[in-house]
Write a structure and sequence with these properties.
Elements (H helix, E strand, L loop, with lengths): L1 E8 L4 H13 L3 E6 L4 E6 L5 H10 L3 E7 L15 E6 L3 H12 L4 E5 L5 H6 L1 H18 L15 H27 L2 E4 L2 E5 L2 E4 L2 E3 L1 E6 L3 E3 L7 H4 L16 E5 L3 H13 L2 E5 L11 H13 L3 E3 L2 E9 L2 E8 L2 E7 L1 E4 L3 E3 L6 H4 L22 E3 L10 H17 L11 E4 L5 E5 L2 H6 L4 E7 L4 H6 L5 E7 L5 E7 L3 H13 L4 H5 L10 H8 L14
Helix pairs in contact: 1-2, 3-11, 5-6, 5-8
Amino acid sequence: MKDVRMEVGGMTCDSCNLHVSRALERAGARRTTADWRAGEARFSLEGDTSVESLAEAVREAGYEPGALHPLEEDGAAGPRSGPADYDLLVIGAGSAAFAAAIRARDQGARVALVEQGTVGGTCVNVGCVPSKALLRAAESYWRAGHHDFAGVDTSAGAVDLAALIAQKDDLVDHMRREKYLELIDAYGFEVIPGHASFTSPDTVSVDGRTVTANAYLVAAGASPAAPPIEGLDRAGYLTSTTALELTELPGSMAVIGANAIGLELGQLFLHLGTDVVFFDVLDRVAPFEEPEVSEALAGILRDQGAEIHAPARILRVTGGRDGRVVHAEVDGVEREFPVEQILVATGRRPNTAGLGLETAGVDVDPRGAVVVDDHLRTTNPRVFAAGDCTSAPQFVYVAAYQGSLAADNAISGASGTVDLRGLPRVTFTSPPVASAGLTEGQARALGRQVKTSILPLSAVPRAIVNRETRGLVKMVADATTDEILGVSILAEGAGEAIQAAVLAIRVRMTVRELADTFHPYLTIAEGLKLAAQAFTRDVAMLSCCAA
């Protein structure tokens, strides 16, 4: 086998790289990469592969094959032409990993992913997809027995949780196959099953097999983590993963941790009929959202039957399979809370243990998260990291964004930097919470002089029509420049409406500019316009759609 370079005409973009690489591989080439900027493809050529068949494959793909040159004639062949097995080796096969693999293959790179578990990572298997499917089902069940419309008689019957979980599992299988497994052959990268561990700064062992690459990406994700509460392990508890596997509805549940995951899953079981009590060590639910949002959401949860204790300190847990007792300090008094199940939703731990990162010269922080710079490069210049195994916000769209960015930087030598300005987040409670940009507290902590507008949902016509006026829109702006810094929404449809706020923040729109922008009547998005107008006038004194 010898390494060669073929001149290729007609390539104009990254997609061309992929088309040429695939054509050459079908004709028998190995270790193929293409570079439209250089107008060439590089690959390994076996003795029985004819040059004519390679040229014809390139021509059939729509490009013009040129002369073939042994790489020895070119001297140093650059970062992709060495003896490494791959151009990019990714540890993990979730959202960040697949985004990186797709971007790298678009550039014609040789790519492999190493995965010791199930392909697809957290989101499709045990996170976003299954939880949101069950949340929607629970909300539908709740609404069947609770609405405010006259003349519409509905009722909710019994819950068959096993059937609901089976339907969820079918959805997960379908999404994993369609959005992950089928893409492997479509893009032409490899998935190597097994556990990966660095054995040197530039080599990885996969269950004893040595694998080399010109660049590496750690995208190993994160897993649920439980705090060191006395008796918790012995009594047993649920995580965000195992809670979605229950086939019998518990009669009661304690939720330790009242941030996004705890609130979502706690309300899921609340809506299905479980008695739920929330605990958080901080002084409010949704503790990282605006305090007005936290207060309003807590009121809604209590009205739906939840018990909330925040702040609370969990002292210990007793009991076992037939029932648990949470011993907590609330308002300075120790109390006992007997429950059937305990759901722990206090955070996630990066999956970096056992990867040999110290051998590779890759630093991690005290939590075990991989330390990266703005280009997602680690302390080893050949190793990058992306997604939940870093200190980045743990959202699937951030993981995918970082995976693509890291692949660009690793493969083509780009110098892209992470930019999370205007990053949205959604807590899929009912009603949901959606936010983008800075909260008032965050803006003030950065030294910004701010002004705020708080619009009750009772001032939004869509909410009035829906008979769902428990909620609000809060807008934070720079007091000097009028630039919008952050928006928070607690309302049905908040997750969709927040995208307008994301764009407004990204382009540094002012409050006045947003107020002067068209917003369709009878949508929750109109609340953004009204919140902007509320900085300077009483919106209760406006007619419908008044500018």
